[in-house]
Automatic annotation (TrEMBL), chain A:
This is ABC-type Na+ efflux pump permease subunit. The keyword Membrane applies. It comes from the Bacteria. The keyword Transmembrane helix applies. Keywords: Membrane, Transmembrane, Transmembrane helix. The chain crosses the membrane at residues 21-48, 81-104, 130-152, 172-193, 205-223, 229-247.
From TrEMBL, chain B:
Residues 4-236 form the ABC transporter domain. Belongs to the ABC transporter superfamily. Signal peptide: none annotated. This is ABC-2 type transport system ATP-binding protein. SUPFAM superfamilies: P-loop containing nucleoside triphosphate hydrolases. PROSITE patterns: ABC_TRANSPORTER_2. Keywords: ATP-binding, Nucleotide-binding, Transport. The keyword Cell cycle does not apply. Pfam families: ABC_tran. The keyword ATP-binding applies.
């Protein structure tokens, strides 16, 4: 029944993508976070006077993080230690919009019953819903990453005459940690949407889940990035296992009757 | 061959409402079974139990040997379901919806499209196929739902008020289609309705339900015998011999109660032998509506006692 699940994923995905207003809203915040904010950082670094205090602060950094000039060191710091954090938040935000209405949205449009009459188990429907939101979050994340990378490198090249190579941690963040955290959030939100009575309720519950998660990530993650890439990898693996576990177990106790109530 | 079997099926909702009480029924292949009863009688609950979206509180049911409660996905592959609450996506076109559901039922894209197109043609929706569902009228939606339910060539079709919202022409068209599905393709149809006249047009057997209990079931003749042990015979004649116990209704119109239609020739013979002229002989057969009200009234009297 892979084809049937694929059909649901495609239908949900197109539901958001064909709604241009919703899709552009989905893209605007991530693009603002990843283009406008970093640009301000880079331009500020370039035009700011050399502050001895900052120089002193930067000298405390490990040698590996130091570049040939203050400007490049600071830009490297922004690129490799601050920006990856955004890519943990963006997929969660993007996915929450679609995930929050996964089940309850169908219920409000009276299409849930029809969907339940398809020859799929609840688990398969649940997984299809999770994958649809997850793929959307990854797409938004990928678009944001490409846009950010092109803009920042262009700015660095024109302002400082150099390009910066992103660190290995980017690879871990984009390929492991960000998808894993996004999957955890999506699974929890989709599960919430199966219990909710209205889309509003589901969205509010999602926000209640997302804000602490984002604050936690934003607050703690910059520190983690300064640590070893292996620790990052380990953390990613733990999150991925947790995501997989949640995806397996989340729909266990749901019945058609509960969903339609 | 039995396609749907229901044994002592009961459902009590969490709030304590007993929606279905020990219902036992069986449906044969190619039969159009009319499940009749007023709103809230338990018709939709029965359909939901048979399609596995509700879990029974007692008893069991199966569709061609598949228990919908334990294997709903298998039961769904065998059944097509049209209910008031099973709507489709407004943001997709009529055809788009059918293509999606065809894929969800495991049909190849090409096959799904072909099947969708032929069903749309049959249900006279071809012209509207590229319009978004949001622009469809209630009747068009209802017909599209029927197309959706038939996409995967189900063996059993559950229809909950399929012609509500349809204009007479479309209703006739849908009736014809249901009739053909049952008689030519051998699909078993489980049709819930409270429109008795409509049911009488297409059903081959009936089940009457009220307050979650089955009042009676059988063909219309069986139900007639149950509800009306005697039949009315109306004869238009110049006169009727008094000893035949006819009651005069109007000028030249006489009525009597008989137990069986085999009594008619003898009565006619006696009138003719008495030298009277006969203009017409009518056996008044109670309609499904008459039967329904007679049976429900009987039930009410029982309860009052």
């Amino acid at each position: 029944m892979k084809a049937a699940m694929y059909a649901i994923i495609k239908k949900d995905f197109r539901g958001v993508a064909s709604n241009r207003r919703l899709f552009s809203a989905l893209l605007i915040v991530p693009l603002a976070l990843t283009i406008v904010l970093p640009s301000i950082f880079v331009i500020a670094i370039h035009f700011a006077p050399d502050d001895p205090d900052i120089t002193k602060l930067l000298s405390l950094l490990p040698e590996a993080a130091q570049a040939e000039s203050l400007e490049l060191t600071l830009s490297g710091m922004v690129l490799n230690y601050i920006l990856p954090v955004f890519f943990l938040m963006i997929p969660i935000m993007a996915a929450s919009i679609m995930a929050a209405s996964a089940f309850v949205g169908e219920k409000e449009r009276h299409t849930l019953e029809t969907l339940l009459y398809c020859p799929l188990t609840l688990k398969q429907i649940f997984r299809a819903k999770v994958w649809a939101s997850f793929l959307l979050s990854m797409l938004v994340s990928l678009i944001s990453f490409t846009a950010m990378f092109l803009v920042i490198e262009a700015e660095l090249f024109f302002l400082m005459g150099r390009l910066l190579v992103p660190s290995v941690s980017w690879l871990v963040v984009m390929l492991l940690l960000s998808p894993a955290i996004s999957l955890i959030a999506v699974t929890l939100i989709v599960r919430g949407s199966a219990k909710a009575q209205s889309v509003e309720e589901s969205q509010q519950a999602a926000v209640f889940l997302i804000i602490p998660l984002i604050l936690f990530i934003a607050g703690q993650f910059t520190g983690v990035l300064l640590m070893n890439v292996w620790i990052l990898l380990g953390l990613g693996a733990v999150c991925a296992i947790l995501a997989w576990f949640l995806l397996q177990k989340s729909m266990g106790r749901f019945t058609y009757e509960k969903l339609l109530q | 061959m039995e396609t749907v079997t229901i044994q002592k099926l009961s459902k009590t909702y969490p709030g304590g409402k007993e929606a279905l009480k020990q219902l036992s029924l069986s449906l044969n292949k190619g039969e159009v079974f009319g499940f009749l009863g007023p709103n809230g009688a338990g018709k939709t609950t029965t359909v939901k139990l048979l399609t596995g979206v509700l879990a029974p509180s007692g008893g069991s049911c199966d569709i061609m040997g598949v228990n919908p409660n334990t294997q709903p996905e298998k039961a769904h592959l065998l059944s097509g379901i049209v209910t008031e609450h099973a709507q489709m996506y407004d943001n997709l076109t009529g055809m788009g919806n059918l293509i999606f559901y065809a894929a969800a039922f495991g049909l190849e894209q090409k096959e799904g499209k072909q099947r969708g197109e032929s069903l749309l043609k049959e249900l006279e929706l071809t012209e509207a196929k590229d319009r978004k569902l949001a622009t469809y009228s209630t009747g068009m939606r209802q017909r599209l739902s029927l197309a959706r339910a038939l996409l995967h060539r189900p063996k059993v079709l559950f229809l909950d008020e399929p012609t509500s919202g349809l204009d007479p022409e479309s209703a006739q068209n849908v009736n014809q289609m249901i009739h053909n599905l049952a008689s030519k393709e051998g699909i078993t149809v489980f049709l819930c309705t409270h429109q008795l006249r409509y049911a009488q047009e297409i059903c081959t057997r009936y089940g009457l339900i009220e307050h979650g209990s089955l009042l009676a079931s059988g063909t219309i003749d069986e139900l007639r015998t149950q509800a009306f042990p005697s039949k009315s015979l109306r004869i238009c004649a110049s006169a009727v011999p008094e000893k035949l116990n006819f009651v005069k209704r109007r000028a030249n119109e006489f009525e009597t109660q008989i137990q069986d239609k085999k009594e008619i020739p003898d009565l006619v013979r006696k009138i003719v032998e008495a030298g009277e002229d006969i203009y017409s002989v009518n056996l008044i057969e109670p309609s499904l509506e008459d039967i329904y009200f007679a049976l429900t009234a009987g039930r009410k009297e029982d309860r009052a006692i």
